[in-house]
Structure formats: C-alpha cells, structure tokens
Amino acid sequence: MAYIDMELNAQNMASPQPMVQTLRAMDQLSAGQVLKVTTTEPRSVRNFEAMCFQLGHKLMEIIAWDGEYTFLLQKA
Fold this sequence. Notes:
Blueprint: E1 6-10, H1 17-27, E2 34-39, H2 44-55, E3 58-65, E4 68-74
Parallel strand pairs: 1-2
Antiparallel strand pairs: 2-4, 3-4
C-alpha cells in the first residue's frame, strides 16, 4: 500500500459533496502526494474515475466493501 499524505472521510455525504470535498483536499496536496477518500456514495466510483481521467490524477486503488468505497488518489 502507498504512503498516504492526507485522508478524507466523506461517508454519509450526498452527491456531489464527496467530489467537492475531494477536489478541495487535492488542492492542498503537492504533485505525487496521495489522498485516501472513504465514501458511502455508490456513484463515487464513476465520478472519481472521470475526475482522474479529466484532471490527470492517478486512481491508484478502489476498494468497495459492504457499501463503503475507499479510493487512493495520487495528485498529478
């Protein structure tokens, strides 16, 4: 597992709040740093994939378990 520079708990937030909070957190990181995001929003998988594709961030890992989604994102 990668070194995690920042963690964001976005559980129980309705869409689009997990994405909004993630974008704010990514703004605080330097290139190459890793953000761990945990959410319960099922649409987050699709949203995070699209965000990484559009902004050039690396989606290092997605873990889906029992209604909870964890993402490791590396800032471009």
